[in-house]
Specification:
Elements (H helix, E strand, L loop, with lengths): L10 E2 L2 E2 L4 E3 L8 H10 L3 E8 H5 L3 H6 L10 E5 L3 H13 L5 E6 L4 H4 L11 H15 L5 E6 L1 E3 L2 E2 L1 H11 L4 E4 L13 H11 L6 E4 L5 H11 L3 E4 L9 H10 L9 H19 L1 H8 L3 H4 L7 H7 L5 H8 L10 H4 L26 H8 L9
Parallel strand pairs: 3-4, 3-12, 4-5, 5-6, 6-7, 7-10, 10-11, 11-12
Antiparallel strand pairs: 1-2, 8-9
Helix pairs in contact: 1-10, 1-11, 4-6, 6-7, 7-8, 9-10, 11-12, 11-15
């Protein structure tokens, strides 16, 4: 197994991502406000919400806003979702030629039914010819000016695993790295991530020199180090573990550098972070939409702390910053962080059911005319999720 010093470099252009930590794109979460909080906490690569290639090509207003970064955000990273090689290539050329991002990540890991039922997301690598065509088109369109990476899952289910062949296909196409979530579409977010699959992919791609990043069940900095040690991965992708904990990236920086870990924040500091998060959202989207958006984060920020139920309920309907301030003032902020609860799993845990797929999707690992018509409709998904 590789040591820390032997890891392959994770780089975006001439910028080395050190530590090799990537914020996973999450719909409705990894907007400019949340990415700023994460960046302020520690170094890494912070990926935008998912953008559909067709919406970008058509210059949909909401989509163009998703690929608009803060003036001080660098490197800029966009996640693209697409099912048509030609449309994907056009979208990549827009990003490259108009200097809209420094890195492009392609989404082949989304397990939600509205995407997989049309053959998109984590269902798409099963059609190996279509997958190869999309990846090759994107890399060719980027023309070496912007690195392109791939994020995927193990496969559709345990009987239809795709990650080894898809990973090798992507590596041969010239991607900068391959990120693997150690779950299938069937798993969704349930159970434990299969880190051994990440190790197997690392072994598969080692002769090609393509870095592999591991994703799944990284709740603490110790988890990240353990994943690298167990799998030999060249870096980690962090998703649900940072929900309500943007400071986790500061812990990851310390862990990878061998420095003492910062202490988890007390509630008073957590509330200040929550308030700043709300303020950033309001500055970006306006007070009405910003306050509506911060509601989903309340339970994550307050996980493990004692907060009266009436206040929790009111925070879930907060409409103005003044109302938020009044509610936060009623919370006893003199509380230590609850490590037993606060550093455990958070976010979605659903799964363990058969994924929704187009009729006959599993009959062949190659795309046919009927499947092509179905999968084309998956391109119409709204950017951001």
């Amino acid at each position: 197994m590789m040591t820390t010093q032997e890891r392959l470099p994770i780089a975006v252009g001439d910028q080395v991502i050190d530590p090799p930590v990537v914020l996973a794109p999450m719909a409705g979460i990894t907007n400019r406000a949340f990415r700023r909080l994460c960046r302020e906490s520690g170094a890494g690569l912070y990926v935008s919400e998912m953008v559909t290639s067709r919406a970008l090509v058509e210059r949909n207003e909401a989509t163009m806003d998703l690929v608009a970064f803060a003036h001080d955000e660098s490197p800029r990273s966009v996640q693209l979702y697409g099912v048509d090689p030609q449309v994907m290539a056009k979208a990549v050329r827009i990003i490259v030629e108009e200097d809209r991002a420094d890195h492009i990540d392609m989404n082949f890991g989304c397990p939600v039914p509205k995407v997989t039922r049309k053959g998109g997301g984590s269902a798409l690598p099963w059609k190996k010819d279509l997958f190869a065509s999309i990846v090759e088109s994107a890399v060719e369109a980027a023309d070496g000016r912007v690195p392109v990476s791939v994020k995927m899952r193990k496969g559709i289910d345990d009987a239809h695993l795709t990650y080894l062949e898809a990973g090798r296909t992507a590596a041969l196409a010239g991607v900068a790295w391959v990120a693997l979530h150690g779950r299938t579409a069937h798993d969704m977010y349930s159970g434990q991530a299969d880190w051994q699959a990440i190790a197997r992919l690392k072994e598969e791609l080692a002769p090609l020199g393509t870095p592999v990043l591991g994703n799944g069940d990284i709740w603490t900095a110790a988890d990240a180090l353990r994943m690298v040690e167990v799998t030999g991965a060249d870096g980690v992708v962090v998703g649900r573990g940072c929900l309500g904990r943007p400071w986790l990236f500061g812990h990851l920086v310390a862990a990878f550098r061998g420095d003492p870990l910062p202490v988890e924040p007390r509630l008073d500091e957590v509330l200040r972070t929550l308030r700043r998060h709300a303020q950033l959202l309001c500055a970006d989207f306006g007070e009405v939409k910003g306050c509506r958006d911060i509601r989903k984060h309340m339970a994550w920020y307050l996980k493990g702390f004692r907060v009266p139920q009436p206040i929790r309920q009111s925070l879930g309907t907060v409409a103005t910053l003044a109302e938020l301030d009044a509610l936060l003032a009623q919370i006893d902020a003199d509380q230590d962080f609850n490590d037993d609860v606060g550093t455990g799993p958070r976010g979605r845990t659903s799964g363990g059911r058969a994924p929704t797929l187009p009729e006959g999707w599993l009959d062949s690992p190659f795309i046919d005319a009927e499947s092509a018509c179905v999968v084309a409709e998956a391109e119409l998904s709204v950017s951001g999720g």
